[in-house]
Amino acid sequence: MRVCETFSLTATALLVGTSACQFDHDVVAAGYYGVTQAGRSAMTASPAATPAATKNPQGPSAATTPSSGAAGTSTDDSARGTAGASNAPDVPSSGQPMPATTGCDLTGRWLVTLHKTTDGLGNLQYAHNYLYYEIEQQGEILTVNRSLHCGFDVAGGGSFAITVDFRPAWPGVMKNVTFDGRTGTSAKAANGCKVSFDKQYMTMGATLPYYLDPATPLPSAEEKASGSTPGWEDWDSDGNPGVTGTCSGTVTGKIFTASREWTAISGTASDVGSIFKLPLQWDQEPNVMAFDGSPFLGSSAVRAADPTSHFAQFARLKAEQAPGDDATICKSIVELAPTLTPEAAGM
Amino acid sequence: MPNLRSFVIAIALTLLLELELLAARARASPLQDLVGDTGSAAAIQARTVAGGSAAAYFNPALLTDSPASATVGFVLVNERIGIQLDGRPGTQFAIPEGIENFGHAGGARFDNYPIATNLLQHGRMKDARRDVFLARPRQAAGSGHDNLTYETFGLVVKMLDDHVALGLHALIPNGEFTKMRAFFNDEREQYFSNSLHPELYSDRMTALSIALGLGVKLTDDLSIGAGATFALKAGVVAGAYVADTGDLGQIQLDMDASVNIGIAPHFGVKYKLNERLHITATAHTPQRVELGSSFKFLLANGIEQASGLNFVLDYTPWQVGVGAAYDLVQEPTQSLTLAGTALYAAWSSYVDRHGNVPTAAYAWADTITPSLGLRYRRGRFNTSLDLSYAPTPVPEQTGRTNYVDNNRVSGSLGAEYNFSLLGTAISFGAQAQVHRLVPRYQFKLRTPTTPSGEVIAPERVKDELPDDAQKSGEPLASAEGLQTNNPGWPGFASGGWVLGAALYLRVAL
């Protein structure tokens, strides 16, 4: 809309102005200034990539839905949560497993380090997840029979490097997050082995499996889980919402998150005998519910655009590496990661 | 009265020393150019007609025709300049939230990042995640609506049997004394006032103006003069230690400043062709105030980065004037003089407050400002009436820039009463001025965009969200077409008034 639709060109009007345009003060005509982005729409998965409602967060073989209100505060391993996707190849209707592919069998114990790069205001940050997988493969189909999420951290690069330490939350994450039942394939290809792990969701610091469903908005700082009401949970027992990250470097403070992310791993490795690397697809809803410290901590980083900066590195574990109970295994996994998967554990 | 003259000369020399000190704050004279001589009946014709001490700035040659005197006065200026923005036609032109992490296809960062339009207009309340963001609504922080007052002080001293005249003229703002405010004339102003401002008014109306002039009467018919205004050239280097980039309130600052004084000379000549007619010519060199500011940031991790900018304020270009005054009536008891002046100003060399020159596509034009006036003297009264028309040097702002200016029609009416008190000639005068900024509307032309995000028309309104924008490598459909926060888009109008009034008292020395 124009503020002055017409202008008289008479000399009188030019000198004294028109009644509609006296110009002795400033005026802004009505207009549109954009809309606040509603909801949490950071995840833009296509329908094919959206975790199917028929997937069981406890494992892809079950057929229950993480329905609204169905989940309470999860405290036992049965509720440990990730949600799988539906793009795994089906087991043949005969029910008979296909024969293992020679040289591409991933059966065994693995250290898996995920390397993810985020971009916040132009500064790159490198996030790592340290995982333990026990894989069984039949034919081309592989299944994660046992998994542990042993740790994760964020390291910054560049002039404004920021490091985020989540260590106090690691035991809680190990206890609550699981990839058990995750499926995939590994098959011989012309230049090695074509390996894929199905897309799977993971949530930290919030009620599982309720918040695994990407259609469910993640909780705010005011939405604490209580009884059968889902919400954020204090996984590191520090009295603050969700999972606490302690930031250091050029920005200091704490962030309190209840995040959700998905990962899918797919690519070709020339040799899967000991150590190999595969491209990683992922995205996240960081959901920083609150912060204590610099206002910059309220800013969100997004996945960096360079696809080569996201990958997973697998290292086959020997029998003497990472033995013991869950806590012992995880301690070893975190210690071994820089040595066995140096590229993924670095920046 | 040789003793008195010696006394006055001593005062003048003292004032010169004071001037050396004041010069650190002395500035160019855009205000002076607008209001003319507010201490005599010369008014807007001060380049052509002798009056008082203001000849030290307008035409030093006329100091030889001005009476030895001291002048004090008061000037009131009322700025009523309005800028009216068109409404934004749709949300598809808005900058979306989250843009700070968008990038080009391939991941390269944009050359600059705007603020989400909605956030800019409405602000944000503090919540658990984010700090409060104060809204910067469009045109909510405009300028050009001030009441300003000034003191005038002038001195004209004659020497060597009136063949040499020394003049000093000062126009000193009251209140905030003087303001210097730099604003961007394009979409970058969104970060600050998110408003448009009248380019040649606003803070330029508070410029402190001090001029010194010397006139010499070479013959009975020919006088020449030279003078200068004093301009500040300052540099500030601020070293900053940033322990926490997220808490700039704890920044540690040092300063290394230097101030130099620049002189902008001007010249004048007056030649009497006959008893009724004289002609004048003047030349004023460019005037400006330069403030260089630079910052050096040292981070706790040893990284050091620097940035800086040279601000240019109150820029006034080369001005060359010619004028003539003819006595239509010339009698002992009364006279009627017709005076006219044409002033050429080389605005094509304009440098804005951020030191930028308008782009070639929207280059400013040189202007010629004609003025015509009458001076009528009868008995103890002198009166003056002037009219002038100043075309704007600023072309239609259909592109990225928003230089706001208008054609201006000015009128001035003055009266002066002369009397004698205790043997001293005294003049008391008043002036009223009206400057009409003729309303002007301008709209922005369409900005061509390409799917690749390539800028093919940088002079047009900038597409601040390039069409190839991606978030985490995923294309954004909403990036297609123009998205901008340019406060002048899609169009704006401007106009208004500048009203002035002056009182003065002049005492003969």
Structural write-up:
Chain A is mostly beta strands and 347 residues long. Chain A is 9% helix and 35% strand. Chain A has helices at residues 11-16, 170-176, 326-340, 342-345; strands at residues 27-28, 82-84, 108-120, 123-138, 141-156, 162-165, 183-189, 192-204, 243-249, 253-257, 259-269, 275-285, 288-293, 302-303, 311-316. An 8-stranded antiparallel barrel of chain A has the order 3-4-5-7-8-11-12-15. Chain B contains 4 helices and 18 strands. Chain B has helices at 2-22, 30-35, 55-58, 117-122; strands at residues 69-85, 147-159, 164-173, 209-217, 222-242, 252-272, 277-284, 287-299, 304-316, 319-330, 334-345, 367-378, 381-390, 408-421, 424-443, 470-471, 474-475, 491-508. In chain B, the strands form 2 sheets. A 14-stranded antiparallel beta barrel of chain B has the order 1-2-3-4-5-6-7-10-11-12-13-14-15-18. Chain B has a two-stranded antiparallel ribbon with strand order 16-17. In chain B, a hairpin with a 2-residue loop joins β14 and β15. The longest helix of chain B has 21 residues, at 2-22. Chains A and B meet through β1, β13 and β14 of A and β1, α4, β15, β16 and β18 of B. β1 (27-28) of chain A pairs parallel with β1 (69-85) of chain B, so a sheet runs across the interface.
